[in-house]
Specification:
The chain contains 18 helices and 17 strands. By secondary structure, it is of the alpha/beta class. It starts with 11 loop residues before the first strand and ends with a helix. The model is unreliable at 1-18 (pLDDT under 50).
């Protein structure tokens, strides 16, 4: 049943008092302030005749070098490990020799440096966008790199976040990782008209504890200076607030954060039913106090944007650092493939990467990659004296689950599981649990594949809402299979960090919730407000 306090996302609601808009809430918290839109990209002047091709080529080289240097400086200055990784990856994209060579070819075809850069970036963007999935999301990153390179070639300042000298709500069509990573203290909240729950904007906003709403249609039509409120949990945007009302929103959020920060302890319902509250991390740098361990260790961050695979010893060191820091770790083996490009894999291009060789399927063509990773995990567990839980991504069949479990157990890994990210896995949950020790539901991909809706598509945000009955039904099937087998079933997708949805998931039978660290206090607090019977009633109402 619809929640009257949770308006449908993607709609505007008119009524008494300030008008409101609604998008997709991706980072919890509430704030308010005057709206300021991000400045647009630099305008390209009319093309000019090229009198000295060598000078234009030199301008291209200097412009790209300036972009790379700026991104690497930002990466070194930020204290956010995730932001640093993303900025370094962007610098690698801007430093791609193929990109520079293509721009130089356009100069020799008669284009001046700014237009040659624009053409080269546009071609690369179109190529990535046509591939879909993760690569299409990286196409938006190329837009930002293009704007920066063109500005540098024109001798203009690179595009950036406004700095008006007072707190404000930043609004944009979309935000680049470089912009999001470099936000100052003046920015109280983020709102974009595009984007999805797994975009870089969402990931970095959650890491900073900054309220954020994406896929908010109509936000770009709101005039600069309009005082707005932002609820990063529900996605609601209030328009035309008085200064007094805005101050109350900010003060209320500050009081709420202080109250939640004072809470501690394991996740439990009001009648003491335990629900593990865990963290999603990419490395040991993402660990934070207040959770009961790690529910999703995304090991692909060790592999992404590299020319060569990390070796056995490097992997052992990275895994051991996490194992030694916390008592409970659920590690996901490499979730990569054509949709998360790893040059060293040498995989061929595919017409639809989201439906191709990714996750565990990489093992079909390159089994040595998984063998090395499992060996490193086993060695890290041995040297730290820990028992990690290890799971495979993109498992579709029982045979895949059994094969993975055998490979892991042969190395002494005793807690083996699989992710449920495709409907076929959810439909075979009972059979999967006959082969493995636990299931972890990745609601991001499970939504995408259940509704045949690209999870990055802003116009399809309503289909990707985790409250969709079909998705909840699949989660319930997995949880029921877990109950029958006496084995745990967790959720590690973005839905796990939604405090309004957490009681529903518990009511369906989920035993653990894994999320960004900023989400843990609110989820803990919300669960403590409900008994297990309450949670089951909420689940039945959905």
């Amino acid at each position: 049943m619809p929640d009257p306090d949770r308006p449908d996302r993607g709609t505007s609601v008119a009524g008494p008092g300030p008008r409101s808009l609604t998008g997709l809430g991706v980072s919890p918290g509430r704030s308010a302030g005057p709206l300021i839109r991000m400045a647009g990209p630099p305008a390209l002047p009319s093309p000019r005749a090229v009198a000295d091709p060598a000078a234009e080529v030199a301008t291209i080289a200097k412009a790209l070098e300036a972009v790379v240097a700026d991104l690497r400086r930002r990466a070194q200055e930020t204290t956010d490990a995730t932001a640093a990784e993303i900025l370094d990856a962007l610098a690698m994209m801007a430093d791609d020799p193929m990109l520079r060579e293509e721009a130089e070819r356009h100069v020799h075809d008669g284009q001046d440096a700014p237009h040659a850069l624009d053409t080269a970036f546009t071609h690369h963007r179109e190529t990535l966008a046509a591939l879909g999935g993760y690569l299409a999301e990286r196409a938006a990153d190329l837009d930002d790199l293009r704007h920066r390179a063109v500005a540098a070639a024109l001798g203009l300042p690179m595009p950036g976040v406004p700095s008006p000298g007072h707190p404000y709500v930043l609004v944009a069509e979309d935000l680049s990782p470089a912009d999001t990573a470099g936000l100052g203290e003046e920015v109280r909240a983020l709102v974009t008209s595009l984007g999805g729950p797994t975009s870089h904007t969402a990931i970095l906003a959650r890491g900073r504890g900054l309220p954020a709403v994406v896929a908010c249609h109509g936000i770009l039509d709101v005039p600069d200076g309009t005082v707005v409120s932002v609820d990063g949990g529900t996605g609601a945007i209030g328009l035309g607030l008085t200064p007094e009302a805005a101050a109350e929103v900010v003060d209320g959020d500050r009081r709420e954060r202080a109250r939640l920060a004072a809470s501690s302890g394991p996740g439990r319902t009001a009648d003491d039913h335990p629900v593990k509250l865990l963290l999603n991390i990419g490395s040991a740098a993402d660990l934070r106090p207040g959770a009961e361990g790690v529910g999703l260790f995304r090991t692909e961050f060790l592999f992404l944007d590299r020319r060569q695979a990390p070796g056995f010893e490097e992997q052992v060191t990275a895994y051991a650092e996490v194992f030694a820091a916390t008592g409970h770790v659920v590690l996901r083996t490499l979730d990569a493939g054509t949709d998360k490009p790893l040059p060293f894999l040498g995989l061929p291009s595919e017409p639809n990467p989201a439906l191709g060789v990714r996750g565990l399927r990489v093992d079909r063509v390159l089994p040595a990659v998984l063998d090395t990773q499992l060996d490193a995990i086993a060695e890290a567990a041995r040297v730290t004296g820990t028992t990690p839980w290890v799971m495979a991504p993109m498992v579709t069949t029982v045979a895949e689950a059994a094969g993975f479990a055998g490979r892991a157990r042969s190395r002494g890994i005793t807690r083996v599981g699989v992710m449920v990210e495709v409907p076929a896995a959810a439909l075979q949950a009972r059979e999967l649990l006959a082969e493995v020790d636990f299931l972890s539901i990745g609601t991001n991909d499970l939504s995408q594949y259940t509704f045949a809706a690209d999870r990055q598509h802003p116009a399809l945000a309503d289909l990707l809402d985790p409250r969709q009955p079909a998705l909840l039904r699949l989660i319930a099937m997995c949880a029921e299979a877990g109950r029958a087998a006496g084995k745990p079933v967790g959720v590690c997708g973005e839905a796990a960090g939604d405090p309004l949805l957490a009681p529903v998931l518990v009511g369906l039978g989920v035993t653990s919730l894994s999320m960004a660290a900023v989400c843990v206090p609110a989820v803990r607090d919300e669960l403590a407000r409900h008994t297990l019977a309450d949670c089951r009633r909420l689940a039945a109402d959905e």
